[in-house]
Amino acid sequence: MLNYNKFAVVALAAFVAFQAPVRAQDKPDPVVAKVGDVDILQSELDLAVANLDPQLGQLPDDQKKVAALSAAIDVKLLAKDAAAEKLDQQPEFKKRMQYLADRELHNAYFKKYVVDTITDADVKARYDKEVAALPKQEEVRARHILVKTEAEAQDVIKQLDAGKNFADLAKEKSTDPNKADGGDLGYFTKGRMVKEFEDAAFALEKGTYTKTPIKTDFGYHVILVEDKRDSAPPPYDQVKDQVRQLVMRDKYLALLATAKEKSKIDITDEALRKGYEDANKKPQPGEEPAAPAQQ
């Protein structure tokens, strides 16, 4: 069952799944081919390129244009014959054309009042808001020495107590593949390591090491915590596209809400009505609808 979160994604996909290039009216739109007395314009070729089968998407640009032109010529050839048979007057054809026209009007309206209105400042402001709302999460930077037996681990601790350098001892004693880096594990948050290792690492003070061996399924560990800090949020440049999707989603939902206030929606099929109402339930406070995925 679709919920409100997923419904927002599905609805927006109608726009993001098809974004054909639009040729500005003041730019030339030359004829690139003729089929009988029918012209194929550059703008039509652009549309054909945009709508090529995804399997052809990896072709070089010149080959894509040839494939698109071939498809456009085929369309013109059979469209001419179909029109001669008055297939464009069939009720089913007219219904489909009306649906396609409505969809393209939806897309044009969405582009004008959502996509084209979003500024970089909007995206940055939303990023700052999301970052401010993130809960603080501690992370530690640690090194470890992994050995097979408890006795070996106890011997490592004795050598550390005697003043041996941790990184040097890791290079000498550890069986972990990162021994060449002195057992350096970098920074990590809770949930990244096995529980026994994690519990011991986060319980240590900065600059201290475990005084008893820590047993896990991998063997026995001696852990040194070199630093503790709050984890940094993802950099703006790394997530700005996802944040833009959040802004786009919110503007789209606001646009829909306004449109729904103007028109009564009456669904006669009971099962469809219930499904639609369930899918469009507003989220409770604290629940955020999912952002649309770019397609």
Automatic annotation (TrEMBL):
<feature type="region of interest" description="Disordered">
    <location>
        <begin position="276"/>
        <end position="295"/>
    </location>
</feature>
<keyword id="KW-0413">Isomerase</keyword>
<keyword id="KW-0732">Signal</keyword>
<dbReference type="InterPro" id="IPR050245">
    <property type="entry name" value="PrsA_foldase"/>
</dbReference>
<feature type="domain" description="PpiC">
    <location>
        <begin position="137"/>
        <end position="227"/>
    </location>
</feature>
<comment type="similarity">
    <text>Belongs to the PpiC/parvulin rotamase family.</text>
</comment>
<dbReference type="GO" id="GO:0003755">
    <property type="term" value="F:peptidyl-prolyl cis-trans isomerase activity"/>
</dbReference>
<dbReference type="InterPro" id="IPR027304">
    <property type="entry name" value="Trigger_fact/SurA_dom_sf"/>
</dbReference>
<keyword id="KW-0697">Rotamase</keyword>
<protein>
    <recommendedName>
        <fullName>Parvulin-like PPIase</fullName>
        <ecNumber>5.2.1.8</ecNumber>
    </recommendedName>
</protein>
<dbReference type="InterPro" id="IPR000297">
    <property type="entry name" value="PPIase_PpiC"/>
</dbReference>
<feature type="signal peptide">
    <location>
        <begin position="1"/>
        <end position="24"/>
    </location>
</feature>
<feature type="compositionally biased region" description="Basic and acidic residues">
    <location>
        <begin position="276"/>
        <end position="285"/>
    </location>
</feature>
<dbReference type="InterPro" id="IPR046357">
    <property type="entry name" value="PPIase_dom_sf"/>
</dbReference>
<dbReference type="Pfam" id="PF13616">
    <property type="entry name" value="Rotamase_3"/>
</dbReference>
